[in-house]
Amino acid sequence: MYSEIVMDHFKNPRNVGEISDADGVGEVGNPVCGDMMNVYIKVVDDKIADIKFKTFGCGAAIAVSSMLTELAKGKTLEKAMKITNKDVAEALGGLPQNKLHCSNLGADALHSAIKNYMDRKSGKVKAKDMEKDREEHVASREAQACYCPYCSKKVEEESPFCIFCGTEIPHEHDH
Questions:
Q1: Cα–Cα distance measured from residue 134 to residue 109, given in angstroms and rounded to the nearest whole number
Q2: 102 in catalytic set
């Protein structure tokens, strides 16, 4: 079912972890399967000098994350932005049809981390204030429901992540 390359990256994932002082962070999730992927990048001279990932998901999602970090490490930001879902799946020797969505997460998480880096660099987002800038999750009193402050979809009251956009939801709202 899985190629030897997929199994190797699943059993021996490369670049697992978090970069505490990352220059860019990408977070993506798939509401259908529940996979969550975080990618952290360190940029030096417009190149990805270091990259790490933390993934909650199936074996294919872990293999995709691992391969993605191998493909992106050392590349310029411009070249890393050109890494596609197809590139990741091909580098793994292919994925079963029902697991191709995992390769989407990998490329999306990398692109999100690079965009986050560019936003920080341009001053749109301050690295230290990233968590402070997040909107608080607010319960709608009229509808007696909670909505994600990022995509505005209705979510379960105490859900830690939005099942639609995959973003972590802070639950510090008034009752």
A1: 19
A2: yes
What is the per-residue pLDDT across 139-150, written as a single tens digit (0 to 9) for each? Answer: 434 445 566 665
User: Of the listed 102, 146, 148, 162, which one is catalytic?
Assistant: 102
In a 3-state reduction of DSSP, which class is residue 36? Answer: strand
CA–CA dist 159, 124 (Å, integer): 28
Tokens of 149: 């402050």
* Closest to 70 measured CA to CA, from 45, 94, 50: 50
SS3 151: coil
Contact present, 101 and 138 (Cβ < 8 Å): no
pLDDT tens by residue, 87-99: 998 999 987 776 6
pTM equals 0.70
Q: Are 109 and 103 in contact (CB under 8 A)?
A: no
Distances (CA, A) of 20 to 8, 50, 74, 173: 27, 12, 19, 28
8 Å CB contact between 19 and 40: yes
- Answer whether 6's CB lies under 8 Å from 66's CB: no
162 is catalytic: no
What's phi and psi for 44, nearest 5 deg? -135, 125
Of 139, 135, 132, 113, whose CA–CA distance to 43 is shortest? 113
CB of 16 within 8 A of CB of 10? no
